[in-house]
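Reagents: none. Just compute today. AAA ATPase domain-containing protein.
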Amino acid sequence: MLYGRSAEQGVIDRLLSDSRSGRSGTLLIRGEPGIGKTALLDYAATAAEGLRMIRGTGVESEAELPFAGLHLLLRPVLDQVGALPEHQERALRAAFGLASVEAGDRLLVGLAVLSLLSELAEDGPLLVLVDDAQWLDRASTDALLFAARRLDAEGVVLIFAAREPFTAPGVPELPVKGLDVASAAALLNTAAGTSVAINPAVRYRLLAEARGNPLALIELPAAAPSDGTALPLTSRVQDAFLSQVRVLPEATQGLLAVAAAEDTGDLDVVLRAAAGFGDFLEDLHPAERAGLVLVDAGTMTFRHPLVRAAVYQGIPPSLRLAVHKALAEALDRPDDADRRAWHLAMSATGPDEEVAAELERTAVRASDRSGYAAAATAYERAARLSARPESRARRLTLAADHWVHHGDPVPERVAIAERRGRAGPAGGGRQPARTGSGLRDRTGRRAGPGGRRDRDVAGRREPRPGQHRGAADAALLPRRDRALPRTAPGRADHRHRGPGHRAGHGARALGQPDERLPGLSRRGGG
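Predicted 3D structure written out:
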């Protein structure tokens, strides 16, 4: 049962009703963490009786892997890609790495998504649900929004749920606010039940400070202080999650810390990395019994992203570095190269040319799949890890080149470095034209705020960044198909920043050292 969401449910009901009459509709459900966006998607899934449904969720750790989110969403229906026009089928398969051809035009990928959704709705209405859209990679977002803006009379309903900073131009938005007082009180009563006694003063403070956030109302009763002491909402909710973790055995806390840093849910990788700290599968059982995690078919999922964020931020900085290093060592398969590179970067404490080179190879693989934003961020992080000034300059210039080619302004941090003359020739890669006023893209426009590259020009078949790289460079930078993000759990709003600069943020956010997770400390891990 959803409390206080009748208006939002009505919007969803109308979309579903229209689809049964052959009309398509789109919607972006936007709200803060814990406000009930996923619950509304669950309602849509339940109310969609008689509709075919596909559902996907953005994964933060894949936010820089080109087309990773789209692949997760469409994976159950890839057997129907063969029904698409040949050029669209080829473009979509190339985007997913399923064809031995160069990644195609992103326009064709968007058309392929539109055609595939229309094809799936041929036999009846189709409901497409995309949760945590703020963690989709840019390529997937562009393709899905391209299709969303062109849906008309196919009987397709496409609903996104996201927090800031996700935007969906051309898609109607449904902002989800906090519950009204009566609904919040009813939810709090249900959440507390008969097992938790809340005195009237504490109950009043919970209602006042939760501000109608359902997640806070559900989670806080068990952790509510008897004296009614209150904290700001976000800190209080995260601390409530962390207080549940702190009562677990230290070995369990250590295993959760490793899992929070490797957020793909790959249980095998988590266990191999945790073994170095003396933590094993049986140490996970207390967390399962406490309802903090779910384990199924080789995957481990935190009950809510805020649980993972609280755990990750509770790891002392030195141990966080050790955790990322252990995860990098556990990712020893060839197809894990990009995830390994980013974990190595997040464990680095200073310049490291070997790690910088791995990140550069990750950037090349992303560029080869038209993932220019992913390539740019990898080049930036590689530049910060570069041991030699000339390597740093070359990588910064390649980062700027890729931002321009993607159609974004060159970030100020890169432009400043270029203006100071630190960004020299990039070893044969395709470079932006230069003038005395700084970086300019190939069209001659200033690559700065307000100087976005014209999309029509960008769509022409000019060389991609690095496409004319010399033979020696090409041999040193083998091509792959993925890139991994630099974001720490709970920090998706910093997607375009590197990982290492946040090494100490979590502990500082939590305050005193005695508030940190002790789970890994007994095993050293430095």
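The longest helix spans residues 389-406.
Action item: order primers for follow-up constructs.
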